Amino acid sequence: MTEPFLGNPQETIKILQKYDFVFQKKFGQNFLIDTRVLDKIVDAAEITEDDVVLEIGPGIGTLTQYLAFRAKEVIAVEIDKTLIPILQDTLSGYDNVTILNEDILKVDINQLVEERNNGRPVKVVANLPYYITTPIIMGLFENKVPVASITVMVQKEVADRMQVGPGTKDYGALSLAVQYYAQPYIVANVPQNCFMPRPKIGSAVIRLTRHKQPPVDVEDEQLMFRLIRASFNQRRKTLANGLKNYSGLDYSKEAIEKAIASCGFSPTVRGEALTLSEFAKLANVLKKLRD
Description:
Layout: H1 9-18, E1 31-32, H2 35-45, E2 52-56, H3 62-70, E3 73-77, H4 84-90, E4 97-100, H5 109-117, E5 122-127, H6 133-142, E6 147-155, H7 156-163, H8 173-181, E7 182-190, E8 195-196, E9 203-210, H9 221-233, H10 239-244, H11 253-262, H12 276-290
Parallel strand pairs: 2-3, 2-5, 3-4, 5-6
Antiparallel strand pairs: 1-8, 6-9, 7-9
Helix pairs in contact: 6-8, 9-12, 11-12
């Protein structure tokens, strides 16, 4: 491993002092300072010398060093321009790292993957800024980016939501969306003292392994996701009422009630009780009514 080795607090402090770096709250910056957690992330991502890795929010390059040591190439996308000279310093010993000063939500990642990996799937690894975790992950899936897996540090509560099933309070639209695209697995829970500065909330590393084929057969993906959003928009309402009151759906009350009945669901069932395959079934029935 090329020095300086940033996986410990002393080296992190040294770099921050050298550059008079000030943490930006708007970018949700919390740098990892625990070598065991860094090892766990890279091990869970199963990085090999054949892999091109997309890292989102490299910070000062702590995780980037670990990735560069194992991967064929690392593309690190950092929004904060004040971190670019630091990254150029801390990663100067690695010739397989490209640093891009961009907002990941505005980057054409499909084009980037095409240019850097001939369109073959990349692995995404990141200590994500918590305020944009969901848009980043859903953007990767919905834009059909060629991704083999996404291994990320997220807010513990969000990691829990991604992997739970029906009937739990954390179950919702995010659970269903993630599970439609990938197999979620919580690798480790990470306490606050593993970061600088310490966040107010607990964190977790989660690995999302992309499904080769969706686990359910649905004819209209967008319709299914509209049904899911409508169902969780007003959790306390029955499924029928949630769908009737949702402006993004254009079905009569009779059509909705007929579709729910033909799926064999109770008229008083709530959306939070339905599995992914049941939402797919409902979407397919409603599509037939429309066709």
